[in-house]
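TOKENISE THE FOLD
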Amino acid sequence: MSKYKIVYRDANPSWQELCPVRVLAVQVSRDTETGACFLQTKIVNVSTKPISRIEFTVGLEGEGGETENVDFSLLDADLPAGEVLRPKAVRIKLSVITGSRAVVTRADCETSFDDPVDIDNPAPLALNGIEESERDVLLSEMGADACKCSGVHSEHEGWWQCGCGAVNLKRGTCWNCGAVREKLADLEDAAFLDESRRDRVYKTSVAILEKGNRKEAEAAKESLERLAEQGYGDSGEKAREAGAKIANLSKRRKKIALAAVAGIVLLAVMVAISPLPSMLEARADMKAEQEKIESVAIEQTVELGTYSGELSAYTGKDIEGQPIEWIVLHKEGDRALLMTEHCIDEMEFSENGDVWDFKSSSLYRYLNGPFKEYAFNDAERGILAGDVTILDSWSDYLSEDNMYATLAGTDVPEAWWASDIEKCEDDSYGAYYAGQPLTSYIDEEGGISCGDLGSTQDSTLGVRPAIWVKLN
């Protein structure tokens, strides 16, 4: 079966302003056995209406100045609003690509669009940690992906760019992360976020007084007293009510467990308003972990988490209690992408072979359940930004010059992301390595795709996860 090597990629082509279709990526892969090259593209409907017919042209430039134009005519694209489409790959004549330009020529009846504009990455947020935490809560409440929407949104004539970087045409919500346009300005305002946090603390504390036991009422009273010092509403009166309730509670009264969500919010209240010494120590530990990762160069390794004896894969093994090594793949603003240097376990994508998306799989449940719980301590979990995942087929990645990743302490030669290692010659990629997966892998939309070995989703393979971590 053929193996493919990525020989060119533009992951952020220019966009024709006000065009409802954006070309998100242009990539050329070469069959390492035959030398044949194939052009791959990815497009998205950034508008509010479905598009039935899409036509676009990709112009390629070779190293000697040669050019080649490839026309895509998707007469029955039927691309829903906000959805991504990957047209079928097209074989091309050029083998060494030095540049590309994608131009949309039709989107249903529209055939004329504005000039191409470069889409820059969003500016970083000017918020502190507490304000960012409140922003994440509000984004989650609106159904948006807080990990994606990590920058400042920008408004333009006829369109807007979300904090996740996606362009949107006449849309009220971002197609990429789900953020609500009219609320983004408030979510970037420190004063608004501080007021929202205090209001959340107040309402949570009052709710706890109505349902909580003595210990919980005491915590709520402290929170209300802090708010009273800041002159917030009738916090002083509520604090006095809390004192009266505490005095009337029987010491022998059976403790009533708070609901999980109330407990989480209470912890957030205490961290934000009145940190306990143990919480301050946790913050210091988190900061130390972040500084450690920040100091490590791309392509180098860093220790994070351990092969916990609580996990059956490591119990009684030589690796039990040893640190997990992660390769620093990429740094982007205030976060970094890490991938384990070795496979950390062996298992199926789906135990029953009956699911085709990552979040429904038994692999996802393991990585974001037992593995996330026992492999990391509280401080380490505190710097994780999102789910433990598996890298997708469009990702470049770094590794040592070994051909395969292996399960630490074993000779297993398979991985969920194991590729031929070959350094890119293009200077624009710096120290990145590129390759195509040799086994099944998880694609950008969370689905399973077959690699060159054609492994099925219920095959037992090595697991080599990746995580984003916050650097501040």
User: Anything to note?
Assistant: The longest strand covers residues 21-31. Residues 282-470 form one domain. Residues 14 and 119 are 6 Å apart (CA to CA).
